[in-house]
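Consider this record:
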Amino acid sequence: MDTNHLAEAASPRRRALVLAAVCLAALCMPLSFTGPAIAIPAIAGELHASPLALAWITNAFMLSFGGCLMVAGALADRYGRKRVFVLGMSVFSAAALALAAAPGILLLDLLRAAQGLGCAMALSSGLAALAQEFDGPARARAFSLIGTAFGVGLAFGPFLAGVLIARTGWRAIFLVAAGAGLIALLAAARAMRESRNPQAQGVDWPGALTFTGALSLFTYGLLQAPDSGWGSAASLGLLGGAAVLLAAFIRVERRAARPMLDLSLFRLPAFAGVQLLAAAPAFSFVVLLVLLPARFIGIEGYSAFDAGRMMIALSAPMLVLPVLAGMAAQRIAPAHICASGLLLAAGGLLWLSACAPGQAPATLLGPLLLIGCGISLPWGLMDGLAISVVPVERAGMAAGIFNTTRVAGEGLALAIVSALLGTLTAAALATVPGIVPHQAALAAPFLALGELRHAGQLLPQAGAADLAQAYGTAFRHLLYVLASITTTSALLILAFLRHPADAAASTAAAPACKVPN
């Protein structure tokens, strides 16, 4: 039983302040992902960074966020949810303040990793603390507000970033994040009660280190491969090292008395299907939050403000449809809703592939809305499904595994898709008359990030129209791949989640964020 000071009367005002603190922290997390994605072109113009260093602006955040979630949850259970939440928001806010003054790209990337660590600590401990403050219907309403905060951050984060960049510059994005983080920190320090699990065991450090190491090497190997070559010693060494650490992680977890990841859960087909469901939106939705701003600003010439406004069409359905999907799950099997949503998203990706760079912005609204509507249907059901497909006594670990799969999967998907776009761009450039493969390989990483001007300097024999057309070809082929992955995921999820009776009751009113056990 948690030591959560049950003797203290639960003041409605105090609980509201705790909820506000966690909601604000939840709002900071999508803002910290979507905002810098809009800012990458501006950061590249000021700091003159390489494509690999620019890619780490988003990947460093996602890598540390996803790799540290389960460890942070274990630390919160053992040492106190309030303590870890306050520490996490302190790390997040301090990193954001430092990011606003970062003089170079290396420090900026390192601080982004620290920001991701702070988010992992705040998310895992904040949600666990919230679960101790509310019970029954009040808990469901509280977590619905957390899900709404995530949706608002996803929907309006790019637009807010665009406004800030247009008026004050990219550094203001991090100042706003720091301010929000400090408010959440102060509110939690004042109102949140300390709680912990007296039966919590030590952290599985061997498992945590091998897991994070495998993620790091795999991500780095993917990001640098388009530049150094997939068959280079660097690529083979990094990817091979990731495989070795992954094998070591599996071995460690099989032998551990209390593993970080209970591999036996993957013997349940429904559980494996839920993990696939956690990763599927990464390829159909999350990667677009980074790729589309680069295309809009760098290739199509949008301002940061206009690019952020366009991104609302992709994310706005998140504000409404997850709730409607939860209501529909009372009568329709969640697996069918999730699969249908992914198929709609795949259709939107194919529709978007027909929109070449240079077309009127209005032509993009339809496919973006369809993708957003499609991915919103499983978004509101995933967390409830994550704990409904395992025995009740293992729900806590199942929720932790699910959230780690989701966040780490988003980071890996971003690395995979970025590397694939770079490779496809090099292949498209090689078909342009006058460009030799060596030149294409040098310019492709810049063009894939939307750095049209820099790519043009490396390829003076090619006009801007040729480069934009090569980018459009690569982007179209990438969308074909993403649509295929999304369609395959939908069919596999439908096959694995063949237990709608158990899942439906648990997910009918599931919030868009995990409820810790």
